[in-house]
Amino acid sequence: MKSPTDGKPLLVIASNGHGWDHISVSSKKRIPNWTEMEYVKRGFFEDDEVVMQLHVPIRDHINFHPHVLHLWRPHSALIPLPPKELV
User: Is 19 buried (19+), middle (13-18) or exposed (0-12) by CB count in 10 A?
Assistant: First the structure.
């Protein structure tokens, strides 16, 4: 997939297992930006679906690539949202 911001390649890996949809987005030389993550999100999920990025405790980090971000969506639970006026 090409980046909507600079046209350079983004590596996108989609998986589905253990009750989660998971999308990894990476680039060769930098972490993907907000516009790129939103572009990938729109490519894999409906506009009204909520997807999240997680910041887990450092002890739980498994980092196989220095420039990767992830999108997650659980299958059996709704992701809670803050009040609309806060987003």
Answer: exposed
3 falls within a domain? no
Distance CA 15, CA 71 (A): 11
Instruction: For residue 61, give the CATH number of its domain.
Output: 3.40.1720.10
pTM of the model: 0.90
Joined tokens for residue 80 = 């809670």
- Domain with 21, as residue range(s), is 11-77
**Per-residue model confidence as pLDDT tens for the chain (87 residues):** 999 999 999 999 999 999 999 999 999 999 999 999 999 999 999 999 999 999 989 899 887 888 999 999 999 999 999 999 998
